[in-house]
Amino acid sequence: MEKILDIIELIAYEKGLDSQVVFNIVKEGIIKIAREEINPHYDYFIEQDSKERTLKLYHRIKVCADGEEIEEGKSISLSQAKQIGEVSVGDEIDREISLDSMSRGAINKLFLNLEYNLQRSIETQILENFRAQIGKIVNGQVVSIDAEGNTFIEIESIRAILPQKSRIKGESFKVGDTVRAILKYVNINRGGLYVELSRTTPKFLEELLAMEVPEIKDGEVIIHKCARIPGDRAKVAVYSTSERIDPIGCCVGVKGVRINAVSKELHNENIDCVQYHSTPEIFIAKSLTPAHIASIKIQDTESERAKAIVQIKPDQKSKAIGKNGVNVRLASMLCGYEIELHELQSASTEQPSTDEASTEKKGIDALESLFKS
Q1: Long-range Cβ contacts of 313-316 (<8 Å, 24+ apart)
Q2: Angle between helix 104-131 and helix 19-37 axes, rounded to 10 deg
Q3: Residues 15 and 115 occupy one common structural domain
Q4: What's the CATH number where 157 sits?
Q5: How far is Cα 34 from Cα 40, in angstroms, rounded to an integer?
Q6: Which of 148, 200, 251, 305 is most exposed, with minimal Cβ within 10 Å?
Q7: How many independent structural domains does the chain possess?
Q8: What's the CATH code of the domain at 207?
């Protein structure tokens, strides 16, 4: 066991682990083997000899008065203890056990135990590192695609899966492609580390915007919420913490350069930026852009989501609904309200004539007054 501390530091360096973690694994392994091979009742502990760069195994026994009950492996009578040296009742005696005395089988068990626990520690560390990145964008290279369309991507020597359902409609990858996605889920199962990615979650859009828009990263522009129909269209509600900053202008960029870069990553998904407002009626009206809204009334319902009754002119209804109902669906997802569109009744054809007559009368009266003066 010479220079074992140097070996521990070397293993820690090679495996990318903290040396204290490796030391604890070795320490626990030696104690486990000692219980199996020497005496299961001993109270074992290990000390470092920094000068000799070795580990020393001890077991501790307590000195009891003659006549007291002796606990096997953990206590010794005073008369027996005095044969070792000058001791008193209640003293503790530490006896060193030579590690060299262990059998070859015990040493093999120790190394198998060490190898297993090192691997578990590496997996645990990798798991914690990946868990810290959940909800963040990661990059990786496509290594394979199975028959079901699931894409396997290598990230930091770990194979992650991008399920078919988490891919944007219409996009495809081939082996060797570099892919960006949100780290969605991480766990350890029987097969090892399981890492799942997604390109369809609204969080992916939020993180891409944060990468393209410095004001978001600096906290000057805040993303309130995103709603997506992946590969088709998305709406993003933003607001600014400063009156001098235009949140929509910041997200769009000069000539749309920022929003276009995000759209390109999302397989040319159309992205609408709307300004968030704390008043629900105003927020809903902005979310239904490009339609112009006449009025909005919020109704409380027994369901989880409240209902918004939106009054709208007939010529604006198609704009509010959008192609295949996408616009109103996204607005509903963004605001959290069930949106119900009501057309305003057309004004009678006689009304414009009355208005025109009234306007003409006023004009004639004004003309007459000039001649009478």
Answers
A1: 313/343, 313/344, 314/343, 314/344, 314/346, 316/291, 316/292
A2: 140
A3: yes
A4: 2.40.50.140
A5: 8
A6: 148
A7: 4
A8: 3.30.300.20
- Three-state DSSP at 25 gives helix
Question: Which residues have a Cβ under 8 Å from the Cβ of 11 and sit 6 or more positions away?
Answer: 17, 22, 118
- The dihedral built from the CA positions of residue 73, 77, 79 and 82, taken in this order, carries a sign that is positive
Peptide bond into 290 cis (omega under 30): yes
Sheet with 338-343: strands ordered across: 293-299, 307-312, 338-343
**pLDDT tens digits for 168-197?**
988 989 999 999 999 999 988 877 789 999
Backbone angles phi, psi at 66, to 5 degrees: -60, 135
Structural domain harbouring 296: 282-373
Residues 75, 9 within the same domain:
yes
Structure tokens belonging to residue 100? 């060299």
Asked whether residue 23 falls in the same domain as residue 51, the answer is yes
The answer to whether the predicted template modeling score (pTM) of the entire model surpasses 0.85 is: no
CATH number of the domain bearing residue 14: 3.30.1480.10
Q: In sequence order, what are the residues at sequence separation of 6 or more whose Cβ sits closer than 8 angstroms to the Cβ of residue 253?
A: 212, 213, 259, 260
pLDDT in tens, 24-69: 888 888 888 888 888 888 888 888 888 888 888 888 888 888 878 7
User: Regarding beta strands 338-343 and 307-312, do their DSSP bridges make them parallel or antiparallel, or are they unpaired?
Assistant: parallel
Q: Do 108 and 13 sit in the same domain of this protein? A: yes
Question: How many other C-beta atoms are found inside a 10 Å radius of the C-beta of residue 299?
Answer: 11
Closest CA to 125 of 20, 12, 213, 17: 17
What b/e string do you get for 3-40 counting C-beta neighbours within 10 Å, with b at 16 or more? ebbeebeebbeeeebeeebbbebbbebbbebbeebbee
Helix residue ranges, H only, 151-217: 202-212, 214-217
Contact 229, 329 (CB under 8 A): yes
